[in-house]
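User: Hi! I'm a student and our assignment asks us to look at how structure tokens line up with a sequence. Could you show me two examples?

Assistant: Happy to help. In each example below, the sequence comes first and the structure tokens follow. Example one:
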Amino acid sequence: MGFLKRISSFWRGEAQVEETDVLWLVVECDKCNETIRVRINKKTDLQNEFLRPGEAGCAFTLKKEVLGKRCSNLMEVCLKFDPRCNIISKRLRTEG
């Protein structure tokens, strides 16, 4: 029955990603104070840094540009992840 459920959800356009693979970020614009929710799919949005076994440093990175609806302030979210996809570093840059 699980197979039929996946097929029917595909036709309805439902997401096939489990919530454990999703990270939600909340970004607030400095200019207009708009709060923007950003959905990150850990399986498809993260860039692999290809660490060698035992090598230190971040294993995955993410750079995502965020633009709200109220103003034209472009923001860039930069995140670094460990091999288990836990955030180890975060930075938000704004235009202007």
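Example two works the same way, sequence first and then tokens:
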Amino acid sequence: MARSTAGVGLDGRRRWGLGWSGPRIAAASVLLAGVALMGVPAAHASGRASPYTVLTVAVGGGTKPAAVAVDEATDTIYTANAGSNSVSVIDGATNTVTATVNVGSDPEGVAVDDATDTIYDTNRGSDTVSVIDGATKTVTATIAVGSDPFGVAVDKATDTIYVTNILSQTVSVIDGATNTVTASVAVGRAPKAVAVDDNTDTIYAANYHSQTVSVIDGATNSVTATVDVGTSPSGVAVDETTDTIYTSAAETVSVIKGATNAVTATVTVGGDGYWVAVDETTDTIYVTASPSDSVSVIIPSTAKVSPTSGPAATSVTVSGRGFNPGETVNITYKTGLASPKSVTLCTTRAHSDTSYSCSATIPPTATAGASGAHKILAKGATSHIKVKTTFTLT
């Protein structure tokens, strides 16, 4: 996303000079199938290895897709194409474009309400939002919003749509039932992206020039907190299952804990981070990178053991994901003994999709000691990522 361009100005299409150049591309998870994945070194946060592995997918430009949204109910992906004033409809099962919907001028943002099978697209050059029927793939309404609309998000629980307006420095609140603007919330400078947590009725707006994220209470349409992310945020996404917010910026993604509104990690990605999206089913984060025509795929590192409990000498399988493809993963067990304190259970390599699996036997001399729950650690030999799980001796 952001280069260190200080000046801000409008061009012929009323686009702000937000400090980046080059083609914009879509971060759709469906583009992964059949495409070679290239591992890059994991990021370091606060002096330690960050528990994420980043993969890069080359997708190209063409119609300059700017944003992406996924309808998990129908396995359909939508991209807003700024270069062709259209929205592409992609079948997730076949990874093919099945329809193209003409919308307003310079579409930048797109969001899906899978409860109503409705798609919302922001048209930056028209100061409007296009409402698309997912069943018929046609525009059913056009809503006037603020100046320079960019990001869009849907609160499915309340049937409310939120749109960031860069020039107005506001978030427009749209009633999905009537397709009318019901409120306008003042936020930081140049708000670009917006995301919603349906569980808490909380909205997050990424303010590019303020280098902050505004936290909005959906019940009152008021800003309740402002989070300093340290870099100019361009994209924002929410993982409701983990109450985690992700903001993309220049070559980084900030990880924010929703309960505390605190930044807990920073992950390095390929190219300049632009839009960010989360697949809550797999807990995977997708970030578009400009100008490298690529998508960064951020995969949290995990470890689990099966079975989770049993006596000493139990046969177990340790598995997970989030290590660099081909990387050696060492599995160690904390014995609970004075010596040796830990032993290597097994060693394996991560597959091309970052997953790993390793079978071994709990040491026959293991003892419960002060605690029956013993740590099992999975550590990457090159990334130094370390994640843990526990096995309880019975």
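Here is something you could point out in your write-up. The chain has a mean pLDDT of 81.
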